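Internal QA ticket QA-208
Title: Verify multi-chain structure generation after dependency bump
Assignee: T.L.

Test input:
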Amino acid sequence: MSQVLEQGRDRFLALAARVPGGGALDALRAEGVAAFTAQGLPGTRLEEWRYTNVAPLAAIEWSDAAEHLSVARSALEAVASPVFACGLEVFVDGVHHAELDGTQRADQVQELADAATAPAALATLADAKRHPFVALNGALTRDGAAVSLDGDDQRAVHLVFAEASADVASHPRVVIETAPGARGTVIVDHVSLGLARHYSNAVIEVRVAENASLDVVVLQRTNDASFHTGHLAARVERNGRLRTHTLSLGGCFVRNDLEVTLAGEGAECVMNGLYLGTGDQLIDNHTWVDHAVPHGRSEELYKGVLGGRSKGVFRGRVMVRPDAQKTDARQSNPNLLLADGAEIDTKPQLEIYADDVKCSHGSTIGRLDPESLFYLRSRGIGVEAARLLLTRGFAAEVLNALPEPALAETLGAVFADRLERSGGVA
Amino acid sequence: MSETIEQLADREYEYGFVTDIEMERIPKGLNADIVRLISSKNDEPEWLLAWRLKALERFQKMLAEGHHPTWAKVSYPEIDYQDMYYYAAPKPKKELESLDEVDPELLATYDKLGIPLLEQKRLAGVAVDAVFDSVSVATTYKDELEKQGILFGSFSDAVKDHPELIQKYLGSVVPYSDNFFAALNSAVFSDGSFAYVPKGVRCPMELSTYFRINAQETGQFERTLIVAEEGAYVSYLEGCTAPMRDENQLHAAVVELVALDDAQIKYSTVQNWYPGDKNGKGGIYNFVTKRGACRGKRSKISWTQVETGSAITWKYPSCILQGDDSVGEFYSVALTNNMQQADTGTKMIHIGKNTKSTIISKGISAGRGQQSYRGLVRMGPKAHGSRNYSQCDSLLLGDKCGAHTFPYLEVKNASSTVEHEATTSKIGEDQLFYCRQRGISEEDAISMIVNGFCKEVLRELPMEFAVEAQKLLGVSLEGSVG
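Actual output:
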């Protein structure tokens, strides 16, 4: 391990010693400290981190959450729109701000720090021993939310993790559990209040019960100086359906890990992703679908747009275990490079140990189609407008699949705005 | 493991080879003295020995630091590199009187492959009628090649006759420090082939290790170097479809190709070494480094391979597309049956402008075989306007085999286009049913469907090879049905 990584590890461990004990999270913290001490911060020699150097993250002296900031509701609404007030739960710098919450049902969303006992699914899905940042989250987490969906609730649960203070690292933990046959939508929203540099390291664990159907939206729209690592681990039972939407539209260093296990026959998962890189951003998406039993279906679409000197990384792993016959797995990763300084490193990966399966993956990397551009220009549309139109069209497939129409509209605007401001379409 | 190697190394060759009484016993193990000995056997110049010793030093350093490659998706017991013979003098073959003395199993396979009788005799080590002596045929070829200025012969001869060419190109594509097995090969390579096609010459025939006049055993650490000067064209064939019973378990070969401006090199391989028995006992470990450099503008290097043999295949024929407008191609069929493992693919490194590469990989996995495609496509920051198209298809026969795809795509400029797609499926029940109801046996039907699946690759092979390769696929799949 390089010196920078070692120093980073030691600084994080020093912070862990300062986390106040007591409560339902103690076991998680002890396990996290042990696993993080053993692994440290990952270097680029590890296959999982081959293209993503965490040294810039390790070099910063992060501090833990400061005092309880007072945040105006309007400030929050400006960065986290559209706000789903019915199920709103707000954390600032990793600390719960009850005064900003919406009118959510107490039996549906609960703060982990206040819970008398840890939720059943906590630390059962995200493996701290294999993932250094899951271990780090376990070691340093102070709070988070436990969401349980039991009925056919049409109202989305909106968890906002806002960061405001400079050089603060927060490690929120989210556990989502569904009852058999339940339906619902959970939005995990990472935003910045202001322009200060910060780091958020979130872990989300999701259990989709039999016949349940769940949409999980992970939004990452923090400021240009921020760091983010996120890990979502899910398990889908028989005939359950999970749809994830991972949108990375901000930050300077972003790494998302997504692991889905299809554990029951007839389970299904749809994974949508969109990442927009501008400036010097690094955006890394690692996904893994584990077809453990027969008759599973997975469909993955991750689209990337990279401009400026940004770097995109995608690794999509599909695994079909022996005897997981009749599996249908599809994966697609189209990328658009808008500038010569931009870079994409993609690795779609199939590991198949059963024979009666249909599996495919595709990955493309290219620029905007010159013929389409010519078509638009010949109809009197300026170069910039034409490029913007085509790029928005490219992203629309992912945005339109979002569960709430209001979300698609706002994020479409955020996408276009970022693209235009960065000069990516010039 | 070490025992197996020992047994294999000590074993008398079962198919008609005898140990030369005069052959010096060279002790087992790998050290500077062994390398000096190999070098002196070949009467090598000082600089080549120095190069070998540097490679040895590098290899020993990697071994000591535990850099034995573990990233490939293959598993085998640890190899003891000190428990092997690194030099065996070419053994004269005992000539058999007639085909009757040859192992009938071997003959049956020859028949299935449709190898001509004469060829069968030569392969099995039977004395061939003087009129049709393949050596004399080869000599005729050699005269014709020499007339055009083409150099083609064994590596050791080339070191003696054309040291300036060897010194210029050896290690220029695959440096001795390239990887673990390349370092090993550079230190102890015994012999190999060298081909040089001068400026503007189109080689009039397929060059082949098949007809090489120094057709002695090239040994387990083979080194091939092919240089095509400006505007030259050469097609090179390696290996053959006949089953190769070889006593060396570890093969670590290195192949280097250099294509200058407007030159074209077509390199075809059919590999059918001993794959081990049904339970995975024995078989060759084929750990090969193959790389071609398209140094010149508009140059082209094309790799075609049919890999059906070996217990473990570990090879990635690659192209470095340095010259502007250069082209790289990779066509591969890899078949694993029983306990075979194959981790194979290619690297296309685009450096020059408007470079193009095509990758077509077909993997067939049967029995308990494990098959991986591992490939890299890299578009450098200056490779403007470059293109790549990759297609990797896998066919699964049986529920105990595996097929895996590990493509790496790295793009650093915005005007390049990279397309990659991969599919995995099994033979359709309806396809099989269709064939069966027309009276085609299940085995023949599968063979036919597999051949259709591989057509895109097989048609890249030189014609006579393609026919044999098709039959080879059928033979290799035997016993995988039902």
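Spot checks passed. The CA atoms of residues 145 and 302 of chain A lie 27 Å apart.
Status: verified.
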